[in-house]
Structure formats: C-alpha cells, structure tokens
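Ticket #410: bound-state structure for guanosine-5'-diphosphate.
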Amino acid sequence: MNRLIGAAQTIVFAVYCYYVIQYLKGCSKTGVGEGQTPSGADAVYNPLARGQPKLASNSYLDKRFPARDLEQIGKENATMVMLVRNFELDGALSSMRSLEDRFNREYKYPWVFLNDEPFDAEFIEKTSLMASGKTFYELVPAQDWQPPSYINKTRLDENLINSRASVLYGGVRSYRNMCHFNSGFFYKQKRLLNYDWYFRVEPDVEYMCDFQYDPFELLRVNNKVYGFVIAIREYENTIPTLWQTVESFMQEFPHLLHQNNAIDFLTTNETSLHHFVQLRPSSTKYNLCHFWSNFEIGNLNFFRGEAYETYFQYLSKAGGFHYERWGDAPVHSIGLSLLADKHQIHHFDDIGYYHAPFLSCPHSEEILASKRCICQPRAAPVNVTIDVNTHSCLARWWRHGGGKRFLNEI
Ligand code: GDP
Ligand code: MN
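RESOLUTION: The complex was predicted; output attached.
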C-alpha cells in the first residue's frame, strides 16, 4: 500500500514538474517578448560603438533583452538634446521617461547627451535603455566650455566671490560656463551639425500631457524657428549691463534686426503690473521678460546663422557671461525677439510642463481630457501655475509679441 502511495506521489510530482516546465517555456515566449522590452545588445551598446569605452559583453542585459528596433519613425531631421552631468542620472531618466511616454516613443527621435566631462558607463547604459531611439554621448571640447581668452580671470574670480550671496548661482563658476555654452555653443557641437531641429530637455522636468503630434513638424510646416511654453521675468541682478550691451549691438548692426521683430515684447512695461507684484521696475528699458529656456524646441540653423552668431560674439566679448551672470534664457530670448520675425516664435499652449518651481498646464478642458494631462491649472497654488501668474510674461507676449493664436489656426 505504502509503495502504491509512493508511486502515485512520484507520478503527481512528475506531472507537476512537466507543467511547471511548460509554463516557464511559455513565459519565455510571451512574457518578455520582442517589442515590450527596453533594449537589446545593439540598442544598449550602440553609443559605445561610437568611441565610448565598451562594457563587458556578457552583461546581463545581453542575455535578458532581445534586440530592439531603434529605427526613427518621425520624419523630421531632429533630435532631443540634454546637457547633463553624471550625478544627475536619476533626474535625466525621470525626464526621459516622461518625454518618451508622452511623445517620443511614437517617433523614436534620437537623444544627444552633452557633458563637459566624459559620461560614465552607468549613465550610458541606463539612458540608452530609457531611450526609444538612438543615443549619442558627446564630450564638449574645453574651448567651448571654459571662459574665452579675452576674459580676465581675476575679474571673473572677484565677481564670483562678490556675488555669491546676492545673485542666484552667483558663486558657481560652472554655471557661468554652462550659460555661455548654452548661449553660443550647443548648436555648433559636431553631433548637432547633423540636425536642423532640437528639443532641449533638462533633468528633473515633467511633461504633463500627451503630445499627439510632432512638434518639430508643426514648427517646420508653419515656418517657425522656435517654440516655448513658459515666459517669465529674469532676476535683474544677474544681468545689470545686458540691455545696454544689446542696445549698442543694435546700433552697430541695425541691418541684422528683423523688420517684424518682437522688441515691443521686451520693452513694454505696464506700471500697474510692477505695482501689483511689488517688483522694482527695471533700471533699463528691458522689462526682463524671457522664454524659459529649460524647455525649447527650435531650429538650429537660426542659431547657426550670421545674425545670431554676430549677436552672440558681441555679447561674449562684452564679458557679462563671466563678469556678471548672464543666463542663456534672456540671451536666447532677446536674440530671437530681435533677429527673427515675431510670428516665427510659437507659444505651445497645449503642452503641460513642469520645471521647479513652475508648472504650466493647459487651460482648455478639452485639451486636458483628450491629451490625458496630469495637472490642474486652477487648483495649484497661484505661485506655482505660471501662465496667468503675475510673474508671467505670457500676456505681454500675446499683446506685444507674436500674439495669441488658437490651436486650429496656427
Ligand atoms: P537651473 O535650471 O537654472 O536651475 O540650472 P540647472 O542646474 O538645471 O542647469 C541647467 C542645465 O545645464 C541642466 O540640464 C544641467 O544638467 C546642465 N548643467 C548645469 N551645470 C552643468 C555643468 O557644470 N556640466 C554639465 N555637463 N551640465 C551642466
Ligand atoms: Mn534646470
């Protein structure tokens, strides 16, 4: 009897094992199948094949993930671009996750990562896995990052010390290099010469709505050179002499100014607004309005053109990137407002975007619902939602810049 029970137990166990094995085989076919997994060996190591140090070829990733199709679907000659440091990896992944889910996984545009130091293996591996398209990792040449030879080092050092407490990022040397680079060098990086369009992405930002269209295509088809989401006012003590430098540039190069420029956007000053927000009126004509450049979708050829290059060189030689703390946002914005047709600058009012401390969320209920936005324009504290906040320059843009356009008539 005992023997019979023993034999039955053995049979039951064998049948059980058979089904477990069959089940596991099934899993390997369907559970981690092609198209669902983040990457394959090619995808992971693509960037490494372009001159980066190779990771061990028997990495667990080789075994776990079948090859992924990185072929670009979007039709524009465009790329995402992120200037970032290795220690910002988590923030970079978070921004990428958001933008991939909301936009890029449908198009698979590439990602170009820029850094003044070499990217490390972990950064390369994890960002490659997060991207739906190809990834490129570029070291910024020292001459594009460090202060130019005409900058007086002592004067720079003194200003770094003197503005440490009073100016936002005033004591941070690398921040000045970053702003100078973003103002005049990112679009000249060798890898970016291959492209016409860029989408600037920063670590730790979030895109709150589905895009549901290709913003590069929208800009190209509508003959735009630049798109922004948030427009606000700059801290005046970062740019004490910027506007006077711009004024002398305008006097010396009047032929470079566009006939239909947006200078009124930069210089109108409704006094009631100053009164309301209790800001000190600017000591110059410049009202401190600028497009917030941590979000930008733009045409690289505009920046590479003669007008912007002349403008940038003029500002760089004046020294304010280093002797003061000029930001790339006002520099880009003033350049665009003066040198482009104001109707070539587009406000994306259907893109929800968050970069601390400001959120911009579409106001139309229809957009919020159909684009699956996760943000509430009216519920957030007033100093967080920026669009109609008193710090915002959007109303000024509508009235004195490119105007307010509605989605169905751009
Ligand atoms: P904020 O947005 O003005 O507060 O400045 P961030 O710290 O976000 O810097 C702006 C962008 O430049 C981000 O994409 C940063 O990752 C990048 N960045 C800032 N400083 C450096 C730097 O020294 N090296 C590199 N590679 N990137 C930098
Ligand atoms: Mn930032």
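RESOLUTION NOTES: Residues 20-58, 274-278 have pLDDT under 50 and may be disordered.
TICKET STATUS: resolved
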